[in-house]
Write a structure and sequence with these properties.
- The structure is a single chain.
- The protein has a single domain, classed as Rossmann fold.
- Helices cover 42% and strands 15% of the residues.
- It has a seven-stranded parallel sheet, with helices on both faces.
- The longest helix is centred in the middle third of the chain and has 28 residues.
- The chain starts with 11 loop residues before the first strand and ends in a 5-residue tail after the last strand.
- The relative contact order is 0.14.
Length: 256
């Protein structure tokens, strides 16, 4: 009975930024629990590689090239999903970016707009389209669907090198609360705020320095592994969270 709460058989999940890192971990977890998955990311070949992994699990996969910062790409993704599957039960807005800059006064308008577009504008547009369709969908029962935003602990306490990114992710937290009210009662809208995870992006870090700082900064004393996002994602995607909406869940190893 408890395992049924995490069963996604017959459902369709769309994951942006789904070809690598936390997105890929969620894609594979959803497929392992029975969902068909749409993998949307900028690089089609990477989406196709992840799609092959999903198909080896016996599920259908649709790889789509998608740029979260381009307004019209949300409509194109939306149209492709409903043309292929006729439904979307789970939408994960995971695509994001946080480019480095040497100092706050060196941030130019192009960088500012790019970060806002990818991290806030795109997730809003895609969620507005899919969420409205979910709210009116007749899939049986009272559950129209689940939207999951991926924010960041930078939305609460940004470091000096992630100011615009943190502001955009704070906007995502706000969208979580607002869309939960807008799309309820049939659609649940929640958010995961990850801390530092050791995805492929971490290969560019000074890992020795990170491990020293993590030991002092986080209760668990380390960064997260990509599959450690899976439990929270499965909870929010399926029936286990049937009375949870408008919530931001920090998955950050616990700040000291």
């Amino acid at each position: 009975m408890e395992s049924d709460l995490f069963d996604l058989t017959g459902r369709v999940a769309v994951v942006t930024g789904g070809s690598r890192g936390l997105g890929r971990a969620m894609v594979l977890a959803f497929a392992e629990r029975g969902a068909d998955v749409v993998i949307a990311s900028r690089k089609l070949d990477a989406c196709e590689a992840t799609a092959r992994e999903v198909e080896r699990l016996g599920r259908r996969a649709l790889p789509i090239a998608y740029h979260a910062g381009v307004w019209d790409d949300s409509r194109r993704l939306y149209d492709s999903v409903y043309a292929e599957f006729g439904r979307c039960d789970i939408l994960v807005n995971n695509a994001g970016m946080s480019p480095l800059y040497p100092s706050v006064d060196a941030i130019d308008e192009a960088l500012f707009d790019k970060v806002i577009d990818v991290n806030l504008k795109g997730p809003f547009r895609l969620s507005a389209l899919v969420g409205t369709r979910m709210a009116g969908a007749d899939h049986g029962g009272s559950n129209g669907g689940s939207i999951i935003f991926v924010s960041s602990i930078a939305s609460h306490r940004p470091g000096p090198n992630e100011l615009v990114y943190g502001a955009a992710k704070a906007g995502i937290n706000n969208l979580t609360y607002g869309l939960a009210r807008t799309l309820g009662p049939r659609v649940r809208v929640n958010c995961i705020a990850p801390g530092p995870f050791l995805t492929d992006i971490s290969k560019a870090w000074d890992l020795d320095a990170f491990e020293r700082s993590a030991a002092a900064a986080y209760s668990l004393g380390r960064g997260g592994e990509p599959d450690e996002i899976v439990g929270t994602a499965l909870y929010l995607a399926g029936d286990a969270s049937s009375y949870t909406t408008g919530t931001v869940i920090d998955v950050d190893g616990g700040p000291r």
